[in-house]
Amino acid sequence: MTVRRLDPVLVDRIAAGEVIERPAAAVKELVENAIDAGARAISVTIAAGGRELIRVVDDGSGMSPEDLALAIERHATSKLPDGDLFAIKSLGFRGEALPSIGSVARLSIATRRHDSAHGHGLVVEAGEKGVVRPVVAVAGTRIEVSDLFAFTPARLKFLKSDRAEAQAVSEMLRRLAITHPTIRFALDGDHVTGFDWPAEAHGEDGMLRRLARGLGRDFPENALPLDVAREGFRVTGFAGLPTFHRGTSAGVHLAVNGRPVRDKLLLSAVRGAYADVVPSDRHPVLFLDVACEPRLVDVNVHPAKSEVRFRDPALVRGLVVSGLKAALAEAGHRATTTGGARTLEAFRAVFAGNGGASIPRPHFPETPAWPRPAAGFGEASQAGFESFAAPSADARAHAVEPAPDALDRPLGAARAQLHETYIVAQTREGVVIVDQHAAHERLVYERLKAERAKSGIARQALLLPEVVELDPVDADRLNAACDELATLGLGIEAFGPGAVLVREAPSQLAGGNLQKLVRDVADALAEHGTAGSLERRLDHVLATMACHNSVRAGRRMRPEEMDALLREMEVTPNSGQCNHGRPTYVELKLSDIEKLFGRR
Question: What distance in Å separates the CA atoms of residue 548 and residue 440, rounded to the nearest whole number?
């Protein structure tokens, strides 16, 4: 077969397959052009998920008749004045969007510059370009795309339902709107929930208002500011608290120089920073923007420009990870405010389900009567009540006068212990309920990590070394990791096939169940294998160790122990969630409790 030059229209349709694979991609290209044109307000309207109609209206700079005629030519752009691909400061730069769209749909453009009295329009249909004509137009540009892919019917077969395509358009526009808060964005059409977000002022407050619209109204009060810089790179934005997580990664918004991206390097950095505080099947909520000189990043590595390549990827990843970890550490004991709200909603649901009638007392299995409390915590039991089962709440802490400033502390003063699992504390503004096992597990974990980082975890030699029998594969895995485990204070050695000998254990875990500890460490090593970094593997093993030495649910705590736990939580980083990412406490505001009982 002989080689021949393809028809220009066919070339444009082939290019459209890379650039315009679905309606959301067409909207993205057109909206990015509007942003590059300096628009302060952008309105998008779609029909049938964008297949039948896409309309983008902006108040940007508009185009002259000469620019309009040239804009629909392939690889014609105003965004590379000197042709330097390494100094790209705009969102678009290839000059492919308009000719690609015009080759697979009917494209209509009406535009007027702010300093011109007349507008001009142009129509492109199936790649056939019309002539520029005078039209009535407001300042800015109005672009309509109708019958998308009508001239490439095979492409229509690969589109999803109108609803799914409309949702993709909405998600894409929301990501652009979050990245550019000073621009008004509006969306309207069928199969989609429209929105109209006003332009926000420059600065942190404006950014938080835009994030509240895009990530939920609860996000601002559960967000941590982030602003770190190193060697020409700067990362700014807001990171959600670890307990403010979601089931998908839709809440992770990343940008590079104002360009929304789904970059693998940045996503990996976010996962690494939150790996210690968010469950593996959950995802954080955040917005981060990486700013740098254009020459330090290549944005021309993906057809949809959704991925980038940094000149120094290790530097960027380290900056994101360290910045996020520092912000999370500064948050200390903070947990999401939605925990208390969910608790109150559960109470309201119970009230509503009973139609306002009295709530039946829940049935608990009979428990043996409590031993007589120590002197100073209560009176002796009356003989007539000896046969009754003990209540599930230990209110002895209430008998001890709290420290003068305890009620002013963030987690308040311990007042009771419920079901020998939950500590109830009182603050000036409400009530705090703490899961004693989850909280102490995090405290022990952070203590072990601090020891490891400072001087290595203190070890204690066992008077009688303990033999632990295991599956031969698990035993081999432990023996292979004996050097790593030694840095964590666990000294083991091989003891024949399918067994290990434990000679040393971390001092903080002294007296624990070493048999179960070693088996759980073997499971942790099996779960992470050799794919994870050494630090991540060690942290996972430390978390397993911490779980074995924490206060168990079912243990009765003395009042001073409960208060000591609260005070340590207040000064320990990440104590608002346990090692598995679950909250360690919820706070109920007094005003909300009063509303629950109709007092407000």
Answer: 11
